[in-house]
């Protein structure tokens, strides 16, 4: 069963649920509230043509379609309730609040009726489809290719525990990956050895792995960071066996009552609705900034042109989300040929920087063309600053966890930029890295707004360097 086809079923049922709910609500309003004959006028057809798409957009924003399988029915109930409550409230203020009514209590009837219709017609098909899928998972008719990282006692115990379950978790173990090279492994008796940790990316691709379970021995715990780094960028669910210490101090979040205790490693801290909202704000605020700052763009262009011979804009390749290279744009702050001998970081008293360039760098005005990078989707307003591959290679030799920054869009400004400022060498870049790692592990719209406010403060105070 393909994920896209299964998701399409949810979308189709949600679309028809919204269509039928609004039609029934319209009939109810005409007969029971307005006491007039049913007249399917242009207003009805306009609402019928737009409202189902409004609901699909709301469900998409909530992240409902992100995970088509392994849905929790309890979570699905809460998510549907919340989305319906929000959507009905919006529709009430858009379409019903200005309706003429004899008694204000009729507003309650209208609101309650639309809520019940929309929720019931949306949730019942979802409940049926999710129950059918869950049954297939529990009966081992729907399985997900799973890889075990580990090869000895804990891995063997994990495998036996999963296989002894009366209700399947849907994991189909296709093999294991060893952490330390040894003559033999206990797990070889039960599963094929597919390779070592360094081969993980190829193994995931070749065997179409959907889930990875880390079951390493206590003696191998020092390798966990390397394993997580190797799994970076792979579209797989990652779970680890918790230590008893983790359980006792409350670090384990239970996702299933009857399942085995596993910690799911999830780097998507920001809720789906916030991710979509963040992208919307990126586009909206960038468009506003470009329009309002047009006089500033013109003034800076003249300043750059008068400061030294050469182009107004400077662009070079940076590495973005998932390691994808892109061209970043800046107002030129250095003399032409400043990097003729190769990439070099700027320092406080860098002779390569023009006088006007020093002013722009101090106020961060040289970064303003990057609003166009945001519109293109290469960058975000807030995110770790993008680096060149030349420096990424040097950073990852000393700090392999830098690769986690590539899991999000780079930004025009970042917490590392606000707290630390510009880095003059690789060691300073690594020192600044800690702030960006903390940001991506705690990111939210609230933190983004705080970073933007501090950035604006830096611009006006001229503390960019």
Estimate what percentage of residues fall within beta strands. 5-15%
Order of helices and strands: HHHHEHEEHEHEHEHHEEHHEHEHHH
Low-confidence stretches: 247-252
Mean pLDDT: 85
Q: What is the terminal separation in angstroms?
A: 55 Å
Oligomer category:
single chain
Morphology: flat
**Rounded Rg:** 28 Å
The amount of helix comes to 40-55%
Largest sheet: 6 strands, mixed
> Structural class of the secondary elements?
alpha/beta
Q: Got a strand count?
A: 10
* Overall number of domains: 3
As laid out across the biggest beta sheet, the strand order is 3-2-1-4-5-6
Number of helices: 16
Describe it.
By secondary structure, the chain is an alpha/beta fold. It folds into three domains: 3-138, no CATH class; 144-265, NAD(P)-binding Rossmann-like Domain (Rossmann fold), CATH 3.40.50; 272-461, no CATH class. The chain has 16 helices and ten strands. The chain has helices at 3-33, 42-62, 73-96, 105-138, 153-163, 200-207, 224-231, 244-248, 272-292, 294-307, 355-363, 370-376, 389-398, 415-419, 426-442, 445-461; strands at 144-149, 171-178, 193-196, 211-214, 237-240, 263-265, 313-319, 325-331, 380-382, 411-413. Strands 3-2-1-4-5-6 form a six-stranded mixed beta sheet, sandwiched between helices. α1 packs antiparallel against α4, α9 (272-292) crosses α10 (294-307) and α9 (272-292) crosses α12 (370-376). The longest helix is centred in the N-terminal third of the chain and has 34 residues, at 105-138. The two termini are 55 Å apart. Residues 247-252 have low confidence and may be disordered.
